[in-house]
């Protein structure tokens, strides 16, 4: 067996009777088995991992704990593709800050995980290496864009994996795969070395199979990094030591304009059960509202801001300095052909529409307008946070869709509110955790717990109490 | 209301500026996406924002200051050039600009 939590592994590694060598042999055997079933890895870093293990201090906080990185984190000497043809053979010359932190704490990278190309997508079907399957039912999607990371934690290969979250790219796949997914406050963790999508929204985050492990991982990654000017200087609390299941008197808001959108009766019943559980635990749950007109603007705001920021950030993908290079008689021809051949259709369309919205004549009407409406929504959230510690929402209106039902990315201005509501936490930069709360049609479902800026501890405590009451922790699926 | 040909011409021009070639086939899908995108713009237009300042970052960031201009990290050009497809000596090679 290899499907241990971080805390279990910490104890086992201290025991002289535990065979570490055999454990890692089993880990890589399982990685191969799950790769054939789920297609969740881009690269399995077996040789590098064994080299690391030769010098690993198992007494360190994460000493010897295996993990996986989404393939948009720079890893020195290890291919970093962001699941794009454009970066198919790109080998970074430096590590992302969080990779250095995990190295210093003894964690052992065993692979780079598949993702939607350049993190643009919610299905993990646009990766260069093909779609990623859901561990609970391999005919369904894992979700995206961090689908490979979610699937590798949910299938039990690793106790934790890192993802990145711009709209819901950790929390949505976490819910579909039945694991804990968390994006902390924007600025809590350095993004140095993360290939950007939309920098006013992008957040480093993680997947684990229980809340205690999440507290360990986030504590290990948090803190100021001078290389990222947006990383916060505020003190990092001891999240694990301060975990507390007592949530007596905690004030929790549920948003009527979101709840009204739940159409799946089983998901609705589950959400009502969660509310009842919180009340039984002594929390005070009340209904609040955000004007429907603003809720319907979530998808338009996200689309415009994310596409515009991506257009700016990804202008460096030109085939000249690094990445895929097509032939051409002039520099312009090389760049145009490289970008056309190196990027997938959905990425190209997003960048073209982002370019449109950034054009001088459109900028005020499109990009600035989206930023203004974003402020209105964040003001609504801040108004709610004056009276409440937590905002509680369903994670999704559906279980993970079938692979055959998913079409390639297409814009739809009339998407359901419940397909986009998790981006509220990206707009406001607030911490947001998705926690498994049950099953519908044998597939996991979840709720989302969102707290105030830099109040990760409150979110963890709320989730910890719910997890203990519902008993869906440490779940994984090796078959299906 | 912009006619379909005008949309195609606009998108061809924008694609060119963004340094992409779009095929006629691709343009059909791109027009559909453009229509959806413009409906997104219309949804936002219906919301009153006359006295509202754009929100650029999620919150007021304390770290928005200039740091000292000093070298803290160096990468050797040999390493950087490893990812370039065409190099010569210490340079990335591209077609001649001045013939």
3D structure, described in words:
The complex is a heterodimer of chains A (480) and B (99). The radius of gyration of chain A is 21 Å and the shape is globular. Chain A has 480 residues and is of the alpha/beta class. In chain A, strand 2 (66-70), helix 4 (97-104) and strand 3 (108-113) form a beta-alpha-beta unit. The mean pLDDT of chain A is 96. Chain A contains 16 helices and 13 strands. With 99 residues, chain B is mainly alpha-helical. In chain B, 41% of the residues lie in helices and 4% in strands. Chain B is built from three helices and two strands, in the order H-H-H-E-E. In chain B, a hairpin with a 2-residue loop joins strand 1 (87-88) and strand 2 (91-92). In chain B, helix 1 packs across helix 2 (24-45). The model of chain B has no long low-confidence stretch (mean pLDDT 91).
Tell me the CATH superfamily of chain A.
Amidase signature (AS) domain
Low-confidence stretches of chain A: none
The overall strand count of chain B is 2
* Strands side by side in the biggest sheet of chain A: 1-3-2-6-8-7-12-13-11-9-10
Number of discrete helical segments of chain B: 3
Biggest interface and its residues per chain? A-B, 76 and 54 residues
Highest-level CATH class of chain A: Alpha Beta
**SS content category of chain B:** mainly alpha
Q: What is the CATH architecture assignment of chain A?
A: Alpha-Beta Complex
- Domain module count of chain A: 1
Say how many strands of chain A there are.
Answer: 13
Helical percentage of chain B: 40-55%
- Radius of gyration over C-alpha positions of chain A, nearest whole angstrom: 21 Å
- Helical content of chain A stands at 25-40%
Separation of termini of chain B?
46 Å
Q: Major beta sheet of chain A, specifics?
A: 11 strands, mixed
**Which percent range describes the beta-strand content of chain B?**
under 5%
Shape designation of chain A: globular
The strand line-up of the biggest sheet of chain B is 1-2
């Amino acid at each position: 067996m290899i499907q241990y939590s971080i805390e279990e592994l910490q104890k086992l590694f201290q025991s002289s009777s535990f065979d570490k060598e055999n454990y890692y042999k089993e880990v890589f055997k399982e990685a191969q088995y799950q790769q054939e079933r789920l297609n969740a890895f881009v690269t399995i870093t077996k040789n590098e991992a064994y080299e690391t293990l030769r010098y690993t201090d198992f007494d360190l906080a994460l000493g010897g704990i295996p993990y996986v990185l989404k393939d948009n984190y720079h890893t020195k000497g290890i291919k970093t593709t962001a699941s794009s043809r454009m970066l198919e053979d790109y080998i970074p010359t430096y590590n992302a800050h969080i990779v250095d932190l995990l190295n210093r704490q003894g964690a052992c990278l065993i692979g780079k995980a598949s993702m939607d190309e350049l993190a643009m997508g919610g299905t993990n079907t646009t990766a260069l290496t093909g779609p990623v399957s859901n561990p609970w039912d391999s005919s369904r999607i894992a979700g995206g864009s961090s689908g490979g990371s979610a699937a590798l934690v949910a299938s039990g290969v690793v106790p934790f994996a890192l993802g990145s979250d711009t709209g819901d790219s950790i929390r949505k796949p976490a819910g579909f795969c039945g694991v804990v997914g968390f994006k902390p406050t924007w600025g809590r963790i350095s993004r140095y070395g993360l290939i950007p999508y939309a920098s006013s929204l992008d957040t480093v985050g993680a997947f684990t199979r229980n809340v205690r492990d999440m507290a360990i991982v986030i504590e290990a990654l948090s803190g100021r990094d001078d290389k990222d000017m947006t990383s916060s200087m505020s003190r990092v609390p001891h999240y694990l030591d301060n975990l507390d299941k007592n949530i007596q008197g905690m004030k929790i808001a549920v948003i009527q304009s979101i709840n009204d959108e739940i159409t799946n009766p089983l998901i609705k019943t589950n959400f009502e059960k969660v509310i009842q559980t919180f009340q039984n635990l002594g929390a005070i749950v009340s209904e609040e509202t955000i004007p429907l007109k603003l809720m319907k603007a979530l998808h338009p705001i996200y689309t415009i801001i994310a596409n515009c920021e991506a257009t700016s950030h990804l202008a460096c993908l030109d085939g000249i300095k690094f990445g895929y290079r097509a032939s051409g008689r002039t520099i312009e021809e090389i760049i145009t052909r490289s970008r056309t051949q190196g990027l997938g259709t959905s990425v190209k369309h997003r960048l073209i529409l982002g370019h449109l919205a950034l054009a001088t004549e459109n900028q005020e009407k499109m990009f600035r307008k989206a930023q203004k409406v974003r402020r209105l929504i964040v003001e609504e959230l801040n108004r709610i946070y004056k009276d409440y510690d937590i905002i509680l929402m369903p994670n999704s209106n559906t279980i993970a869709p079938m692979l055959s039902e998913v079409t390639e990315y297409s814009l739809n201005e009339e998407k359901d509110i419940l397909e986009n509501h998790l981006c509220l936490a990206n707009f406001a930069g607030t911490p947001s955790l998705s926690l498994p709360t049950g099953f519908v049609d044998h597939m996991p479902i979840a709720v989302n717990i969102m707290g105030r800026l830099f109040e990760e501890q409150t979110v963890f405590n709320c989730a910890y109490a719910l997890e203990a009451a519902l008993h869906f922790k440490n779940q994984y699926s090796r078959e299906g | 209301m912009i006619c379909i040909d005008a949309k195609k011409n606009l998108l061809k021009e924008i694609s060119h500026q963004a340094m992409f070639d779009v095929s006629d086939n691709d343009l059909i899908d791109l027009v559909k996406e453009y229509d959806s995108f413009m409906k997104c713009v219309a949804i936002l237009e219906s919301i009153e924002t006359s006295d509202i300042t754009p929100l650029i970052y999620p919150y007021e960031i304390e770290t928005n200051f200039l740091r000292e201009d000093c070298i803290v990290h160096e990468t050797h050009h040999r390493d950087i050039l490893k990812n370039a497809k065409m190099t010569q000596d210490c340079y990335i090679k591209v077609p001649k600009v001045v013939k």
